[in-house]
Amino acid sequence: MTSEATRERTLVPLREGMFRTPGRLDSPAGLLGDRCRNCGEAFFPRRVFCAACSSGDMEDVEFPSMGTIETFTIVRQQPPNSVMEPPYAIVRVRIDNGPSVQTVVPAEDVRGVGIGGRAELLVRRLKEDEAGNTVVSFMARPIDQQER
Ligand SMILES: [Zn+2]
Question: DSSP class of residue 28?
Answer without folding.
Answer: B
